Amino acid sequence: MVASYPRSGSTWLRFVLAEILTGAPSDFARVNDSIPAVGRHRHAAPLLPAGGRLMKTHEPCRPEYRRGIYVVRDPRDVVISEYAYQLALGRFTNRFDRFVNAFLQGGVNGYGSWQDHVCGWLDAPLAHNGDLLLVRFEDLRAATEATLVRVLGFLSCSADIAAIRAAVANNSIDKMRAKEQRSPQKASRNGRFVRNGSVGGWRELISERHLRLIEQYAGDAMLRLGYLDPDAATGARQSSAPSTLVI
Fold first, then answer.
1. CA-CA distance, 240 to 198, in Å (whole number)?
2. pLDDT digits (tens, 9 = 90+) for 149-161
3. For residue 222, which of 74, 16, 106, 91 has the smallest C-alpha distance?
4. How far from 96 is each of 36, 84, 118, 228, CA to CA, in Å?
């Protein structure tokens, strides 16, 4: 499984992995065929050793999932991206203030709240027996090659640096947007599916009041993932935080 909460970067990872593993240029149709969503995976190509397949999901972790890559992103960036996406789809027309509340209470996309989704995957049995690889979107951006080598190692696939570099170059933000232009997605009608993939863009866009609210709901999960410094938190959290989970 290539899993994530929506707007966390798993689409980009799928594009890059598909290109590395198939040797063919990635576009939306090819990627959706080679690494399809759960429920559309019957004819997925065997991309992995011994005929293994890759499947995409945004679902909360299920007991039948045996092995997975879980992509996580700072929820402060996720909420901004999800807000723009839902506006483009026409599913949410209220102010950002109301959206933040709905996001934190699991009412915007059918997959629950960010914090429940994250903890559901991190606390699942496969996370404690070596069958879950946690990948931070921020690491994909800051240390792309090293992170992809780690992903390929987890998949028992060879990590050819030349192939990795070519796949990354062929799936830059500009090239991904060009691919979306050639193959419009649902959000393309009134916005973009491929946004700017920012890291830390929330610092210029989210108010202090919203930051306190996000920490109140999602602070424990943010601490587990290193997105919150306990010494710099705003003080909105009321419960003690668990120690950081390393997978």
1. 30
2. 999 999 999 989 9
3. 74
4. 32, 10, 22, 22
